[in-house]
Every structure is written in structure tokens, then in C-alpha cells.
Amino acid sequence: QALSISVADEVAFYTELNKELLSIVDLTAKQGANQQIAIKAAAFSAYLQMKERAGIERAVLSSTFGNDAFKVGAYRRFVTLVSEQEAYQERFLALTEPQNYSDYNQQLNNQAFKEVADYRAIAFAQDPQQLKQQQPERWFQTSTKRIELLSQFEQGLSNQLMAVTKARLNVATKHLYITLTVLLLVASLVIFVSMSVMRFIHQ
Length: 203
Description:
Blueprint: H1 7-31, H2 35-62, H3 74-95, H4 98-107, H5 111-125, H6 128-133, H7 136-202
Helix pairs in contact: 1-2, 2-3, 2-7, 5-7
């Protein structure tokens, strides 16, 4: 049933679903006052961009495999999607923490990632016979496994970002309370001094 969705529909779905979230994360990375949060947000944004394109790639090749050629414009779209995924992956790895870097590279050894790479090689070759021999349902399942692994890893990144943000918020809130307390004490002192001066003047 999922394979009955057209490429255009799935591309539109992914794009609309992620557009606002990705723009918010990018904005946070650009305008974040705290460097640690800004770097984590930028890495997370790159990861989300990469995963979004993995979903679109799944749709493009699902409409290709089982046929002897790509549809008009589909091959260029496929090449662009793979290139963008690699670029965003490099950006993520350059920004993320060492432990995330290590964990992600371990994830790349998963069978689903290797099988996706094999399917990509077939698609890049554009051999009519090989393209026609591929089962789109099998490709869809394999690509979905990869995306599910990416989603699980994404949850960990999200939790880390939320934890750091919450910690900074707690610190900021504590500083705010301290500042307000000091201001109240100063205001009380000013009022006390003012009232004392007024009594002295009226005596």
C-alpha cells in the first residue's frame, strides 16, 4: 500500500512535514547565545536534513526499480539526493561530539546501510536489465530499515539537545532569581534611606 504513493506525493509530504522543524532548528543554531547549544543545534539540523533526503530517495528509487530506466528527471534527482545526504552527513560528523561521531560510524556498519549502498550502486550504473530485476518492495523495506535506524539515533540527539537546553534554562532561571532578589534588596535599601532622609528633613 505504501508503494502506491506517488513520488511527488511523498516528496511533498516529507518536505511539508519537516520544513518548519528544520527552519526552527537552523534559526536556533544561528541565533543561539550559548555556543554549546548552537553547535548541538547545528549538528542536529544537519542530521535532520540528511534523514529527510533519505526518505525522498526511498520514494524516488521505489518508482524506478522494476522498470528498465529512470523516469524523466528522476536520475538527476537521485544523484542530488545522495550527494546532499553525504554533505549533510559530513556536516553532522564535523559538528557533533566524539561519542556521537563514534556511535554513528558504528551504525553505518548495520546491514541495512550496506544494502542501501548496494542498491545505490545499481541505480548509479543505470543498467536497464539490473534496474528491472530489482523488486521495489524489497528496496522500500531495506530503505525503511535504514530510516528507522536513523530515527532511533535522532531521538538520542534530540534528548541530548533538550537536556543541555534545560540545564542552561535552569542556570538562567537561577541567575534571574538572584538578580531579582538583589534588585529587591537594593530597592528596599533605597526606600529605607529615602524615608530616613525625609524624616530628618521634616524634623
